[in-house]
Design a protein that fits this description.
Layout (H helix, E strand, L loop, with lengths): L21 E6 L1 E4 L3 E2 L4 E2 L8 E3 L4 E5 L2 E5 L6 E3 L6 E3 L3 E5 L4 E8 L8 E9 L2 E9 L5 E9 L1 E2 L2 E5 L4 E9 L2 E7 L6 E7 L6 E6 L7 E5 L2 E5 L12 E5 L3
Antiparallel strand pairs: 1-10, 1-12, 2-7, 2-11, 3-4, 5-10, 6-7, 8-9, 11-17, 12-13, 13-14, 14-15, 14-16, 17-18, 18-19, 20-23, 21-22
Length: 246
């Protein structure tokens, strides 16, 4: 093995499958919007599709153009990366999203306990989704947190917010999913950008510009690739992953 690139082991991210995406408004927060009530849930004129509940909240209401959702105690939405244990009892309000979109909300959380959060999420299926959280983290500091789940969930804690209100934005363009936040609703900071890579079985991994037969392995953490002795060029190198066809 040579040391030509740093990161001899390349960890590939697995991916959101190309199912119809669903945008979710999740957990304990207030969403500023002009809204009305109905027997099934809130009606928000700005929403591109009808909203419905998946796991009912403890309560919800609309007042002065603000939708408030209160989750029940001890609810969560996570697939543990340590043992694969699933939690999926959080209250969610969802609608089918178009192919490309952006959606933002002013999120206010009445933080009382550790891990209380207001969330926007993008959902493909039970094993593939992205959560963008304004959360009371383990050190009890309201922070921007992102969770990407592809079979198992990761957890990435970012900027601390010195208030109980923040603006969250989720967007999708092509295969790219972006998560941004703002403290004033005007200036946005990108906190995470992700793409929908292949999640199924892999047939072969190749190094572009090289005829080497790469040796690779895969586990729950990703893909590890053993590199050839010499790089195919002096500049950027790229891998090609071929899916296993049924």
């Amino acid at each position: 093995m040579s040391s030509w690139p740093q990161g001899l082991k390349r960890t590939g991210k697995e991916t959101l499958t190309q199912h119809a995406l669903v945008l979710i408004i999740l957990a304990v927060f207030s969403l500023s919007a002009n809204a009305q009530t109905s027997s099934n849930g809130p009606i928000i004129p700005a929403s591109p599709a009808s909203l419905h509940w998946r796991n009912n909240p403890a309560s919800w209401n609309v007042k002065d153009g603000v939708l408030t959702i209160t989750a029940a105690e001890k609810t969560d939405w996570l697939i543990s990366p340590t043992d694969g244990q699933e939690a999926g009892n959080s209250a969610v309000l969802l609608f089918s999203a178009p192919k490309d979109f952006w959606f933002s909300a002013k999120v206010t959380v009445n933080f009382q306990s550790q891990f209380d959060a207001g969330v926007l999420a993008i959902y493909a299926d039970e094993k593939d989704w992205v959560k963008f959280r304004f959360e009371n983290t383990s050190d009890k500091k309201p922070s921007i947190v992102s969770v990407v789940t592809r079979g198992l969930s990761d957890d990435n804690t970012g900027t601390v917010i010195g208030d109980n209100t923040v603006y969250l934005k989720v967007s999708k363009a092509g295969q790219a999913i972006s998560l941004s936040f703002s403290t004033d609703g005007t200036k946005w900071k990108l906190t995470r950008s992700d793409s929908s890579h292949y999640r199924g079985e892999i047939a072969r991994i190749g190094l572009l510009g090289s005829d080497s037969n790469l040796v690779w392995s895969r586990n729950a953490d990703g893909v590890t690739i053993n590199l050839p002795e010499k790089p195919p060029c002096d500049y950027a190198c790229a891998f090609k992953i071929n899916p296993l066809r049924a």
